[in-house]
Design a protein that fits this description.
With 301 residues, this protein is an alpha/beta fold. Helix content is 25%, strand content 31%. Helix 1 packs parallel to helix 6. The relative contact order is 0.19.
Length: 301
């Protein structure tokens, strides 16, 4: 059965740093946003530790998520957030229609889309049973500082950047590229010339396992094995933008290039080129919250 609702002024889709920051700014500008969250937690909640969010020192990802959530509830109210996973979003005459998988409908005059992007998993046996696999060097690299060796998987720009970042922290970084490198020439050249990075082309990880010395044993193709302290997957991200195809221009990977519909705003990691950092997402959310409030002021007169 389809349930319809009255018109909200502003719905924010996504409850990570971008969405919550957008909602706080919009609320303080005089509107009363409703935040929709999916069934999965924000990516920040699943991050082990965060040590570069200005003013917070070294903090667990879950704790940071709780603090953002609690700040949001203090400003916007506990009742202004609900689980509602949007599967369809469309422009209608007075605003937007949002639908979830159960056929429930919400209407809003303005929408901020801040659903983030999930790192692609390697999908190899052992990946889910260890904490020594990460997908963000800037977030987790520091915890391996001074270690003998790390591995990075991927052959694109992200993998090059991750390898270069990690090479400043540990003695040796092994860059495992399953086929050929597709990164920009300039980035790859810096990697090739870096004394601490060894590039292994045509190399796939088949399985991984933590041994008794807390090393990660990587089973590679060609019957090879590599032992490292940690592995960083850098094989791309998947943004949750399928429902907004008619509202924003997307690139070939589904990242937002720019919002198209009037009254529709995007924030945070749904944009492909924003470094995927919580503090940047929060700042971008603030920008979207201010812009949405300015838009609503005009629309509501
Ligand atoms: P890309 O899609 O460019 O590269 C993904 C890499 O991961 C490829 O080498 C791919 O190999 C490999 N890969 C994919 N799946 C697997 C797997 N299961 N196992 C092993 N390897 C795998 O992703 P990026 O995140 O690097 O970049 C995304 C976009 O962001 C690009 O447009 C990039 O230019 C941009 N970017 C730009 C930066 C900059 O300009 N400084 C920094 C970071 C990103 P294969 O080729 O075999 O498919």
């Amino acid at each position: 059965m389809t349930n319809t609702s009255s018109m909200e002024n502003l719905v924010v889709v996504g409850s990570g740093p971008a969405g919550l920051s957008a909602a706080i700014y919009a609320k303080q500008a005089g509107f009363n946003p409703l935040v929709l969250r999916g069934s999965e937690s924000s990516l920040i909640a699943t991050t082990d530790r965060v040590n570069n969010y200005l003013g917070l020192g070294d903090i667990g990802g879950l704790e940071l998520h709780r603090r953002l959530q609690s700040h949001y509830e203090d400003v916007c109210g506990k009742d202004r957030s609900k689980i509602f996973e949007v599967v369809r979003a469309e422009r209608i005459a007075e605003g937007f229609e949002l639908e979830n998988g159960q056929g429930e409908i919400l209407h809003a005059r303005a929408v901020i889309w801040a659903t983030g992007a999930q790192p692609k998993k390697l999908n190899v046996p052992g990946e889910e049973s260890t904490e020594a696999v990460s997908y963000c060097a800037t977030c987790d690299g520091d915890f391996y500082s001074g270690d003998p060796a790390l591995a990075v998987v991927g052959g694109g720009d992200s993998a090059m950047e991750e390898a270069l970042y990690l090479a400043e922290l540990v003695d040796q970084v092994h860059l495992l590229v399953r086929s050929t490198v597709r990164a920009k020439e300039e980035l790859y050249s810096r990697v090739q010339n870096h004394p601490k990075i060894s590039v292994m082309l045509d190399t796939s990880v088949l399985a991984l396992e933590e041994n008794e010395s807390m090393e990660l044993e990587l089973q590679l193709d060609g019957d090879r094995q590599l032992n490292v302290s940690g592995l960083f997957g850098a094989i791309g991200h998947v943004p949750n933008t399928e429902p907004i195809r008619s509202l924003a221009e997307l690139d070939y990977q589904g990242f937002v290039v720019k919002p198209l519909a009037t009254g529709f705003f995007c924030a945070g990691d749904v944009f492909g080129e924003n470094h995927r950092q919580a503090i940047i997402a929060a700042g971008d959310g603030a920008r979207a919250g201010i812009e949405a409030a300015e838009y609503l002021r005009v629309v509501l007169g």
